[in-house]
Write a structure and sequence with these properties.
The chain is of the alpha/beta class. Helix content is 56%, strand content 18%. The protein is built from 19 helices and 15 strands. Strands 2-1-4-5-6-7 form a six-stranded antiparallel sheet, covered by helices on one side. The chain has a six-stranded mixed sheet with strand order 8-12-13-3-14-15. A three-stranded antiparallel sheet has the order 9-10-11. Strand 12, helix 16 and strand 13 (485-489) form a beta-alpha-beta unit. Helix 4 (140-151) packs across helix 13, helix 6 packs antiparallel against helix 12 and helix 7 (207-219) packs antiparallel against helix 11.
């Protein structure tokens, strides 16, 4: 649930802090006051498209943050997949900013996030229905998504998609295997050359790292030899100076003598003797390392040539030696497939027949599930349309067979009959603007029962409706808000009266600049705002009508 929204320098809103509660919250105000800007800000903070044009004139950047509570388990799981966690109090803070020069940033609970991750999370938190979404009803290809969501067909659809992908994979393999002779000869030659090139290199995993280290050692051999000589001098002594080994040996002998009368000193002598052995071993290893520092120019040149060869192969085929060798095996598999193409093709065709039968069976199961869901869908939507003063409008779900596609073997389209006795026709050719708004609201109402999204936003859902129908829309929005948080931008008093909370978006001008603010209204102010919407100004008559609306809404 959206708990609060903070907006800075977004269009005409210099600064606004808005608190949202559960249930239905309505936003009203004069045309152009900035109501839709609030919705745009919610859209933006959820990762939807935003441009630098939203930055208030004269400001360096626009900034929006939103706090959500009561986060659904599915959202928590998705957050976890992307490495994000909720705050200690269980809330989720989302922040987004964009500068005047178009640079932006996103954060989830204080940690940087990409826009794509923000969008993925945002679409699980809030569903925004704007006026443009009515047009989705005019696009028949979108109808199948509505039906599958209502029917809870995700599992059966995923099962079909899995079979379909496998069938398509085999078909692509068959196409690749049925190349003409000229292409086959060219591919054989190319693959043979590439395999020979890799085999000739006789790569060994880890060789590049070893050679690189050895080359660096060779390049710095003289300096290292000087340091190892210093080690030798320190250990074994030089000229008339005793080395560390001789001094440690004297110390051990002295402690042995003293240890004849003191058990503690004898124990110390033993410990020092052990340390002496370690030091002697280190001295020997240093001497061996110095002896191994024997590089000539030819050896260094050979290392350079070998590293250059490995570099060419890894650049051409894969990131490292292991990848090149794996790629070599893949090339060999392709060559073997071409060499034995007849047998391989026959095997693929047998697999294709099995995969096709499995895909058709999965498609038939999906179709049957869609037909069952369509019956419930029609009943539920028609019941909502009747409630919305469209009792004679009948919605039918047409499911016609098609060639198999990524979404199944069905063409799904919503048809409506506006009057009794008339055949159902395409929504695009039949529905008016007001009917589209109510049909979409009916769909949203039905889908709200199966969606996990906690917050629904309706931007001017009242487009094209008025009177009794508007009152019914308000009642339905309030009913949806019994199990979801609902935010609604409206111009109609009949809808605004049904809000559990009422926010007023107002605009003022000061020092030649426009400012927008969002204010929560108490009951008295609510009635005054409803009166203004009803009659354009507050009078005793419009105020009385507003109070009556509120009383009926609360009933």
């Amino acid at each position: 649930m959206l708990q609060s929204l903070h907006i800075e320098n977004v269009a005409v809103i210099e600064r606004a802090d808005i608190t949202f509660g559960a249930g239905l919250t309505v936003l009203t105000g004069e045309t152009g006051a900035g109501k839709s800007i609030v919705i745009d800000a919610i859209n933006a903070v959820l990762g939807e498209r935003i441009t630098r044009d939203v930055v208030r004139h004269g400001a360096e950047r626009a900034y929006i943050s939103a706090v959500f509570g009561d986060i659904a388990p599915a959202v928590v799981s998705t957050l976890d997949e992307h490495g994000f966690t909720l705050e200690e109090d269980g809330t989720l803070l989302i922040q987004r900013s964009i500068t005047a020069d178009g640079k932006g940033s996103c954060r989830i609970n204080g940690r940087p996030a990409t826009v794509s991750v923000l969008r993925e999370i945002g679409r699980m938190l809030v569903n925004i229905h704007g006026q443009h979404e009515n047009q989705a009803l005019l696009q028949a290809e979108r109808h199948v998504e509505y039906l599958d969501r209502l029917g809870g067909l995700q599992t059966v659809r995923e099962a079909y998609e899995k079979e379909y992908r496998e069938y398509c994979r085999i078909q692509r393999a068959i196409k690749a295997a049925t190349m003409d002779e000229a292409e086959k000869e060219y591919r054989q030659t190319t693959l043979t050359q590439q395999i020979a090139e890799i085999d000739a290199a006789a790569l060994r995993v880890g060789e590049e790292a070893e050679l690189t280290e050895k080359r660096e050692l060779a390049r710095h051999a003289e300096k290292i030899a000087q340091e190892l000589q210093a080690v030798h001098a320190a250990m074994d002594g030089e000229d008339d100076t005793l080395g560390a080994l001789a001094q440690l040996t004297d110390a051990v002998n002295a402690l042995r003598v003293a240890g004849r009368v003191s058990s503690e000193l004898d124990e110390l002598a033993a410990r020092l003797q052990s340390a002496l052995y370690d030091v002697q071993a280190c001295a020997e290893e240093a001497a061996e390392a110095k002896a191994a520092l024997s590089f000539d120019e030819q050896e260094l040149s050979q290392m350079e040539d070998r590293l250059a060869l490995i570099g060419r192969l890894t650049k051409k085929y894969a990131a490292d030696e292991a990848g090149v060798l794996t790629h070599r095996d893949e090339l060999q598999a392709q060559l073997d497939a071409i060499t034995s193409s007849d047998e391989y093709l026959a095997d693929l065709q047998a697999q294709s027949a099995v995969a096709r039968d499995a895909t058709i069976a999965a498609s038939e199961r999906l179709t049957a599930a869609r037909r069952q869901a369509a019956v419930r869908f029609e009943q539920n939507v028609c019941a909502q349309l009747t409630f919305l003063d469209m009792p004679h409008v009948r919605l039918e779900v047409s499911i016609q067979p098609t060639a198999l596609t990524a979404i199944g073997g069905d063409k799904v389209e919503f048809l409506i009959a506006s009057n009794p006795g008339e055949p159902a026709k395409s929504i695009a050719r039949t529905a008016s603007g007001g009917e589209l708004s109510r049909i979409m609201l009916a769909l949203k109402s039905v889908l709200a029962e199966v969606d996990d999204i906690e917050t629904l936003v309706f931007d001017e859902v009242d487009s094209g409706i008025s009177g009794r129908a508007a009152t019914k829309v308000g009642v339905l929005l309030r009913q949806i808000a019994c199990c979801r948080q609902v935010l609604c931008v409206t111009h109609l008093a009949q809808i605004a009266a049904h809000g559990h909370e009422h926010l007023l978006v107002s605009k003022s001008v000061a020092d030649g600049r426009t400012f927008t603010k969002v204010t929560g209204l108490d009951e008295t102010k609510r009635c005054e705002e409803l009166a203004r919407i009803i009659g354009g100004e507050v009078t005793d008559t419009t105020l009385e009508a507003a109070r009556e609306m509120r009383e009926k809404a609360e009933e």
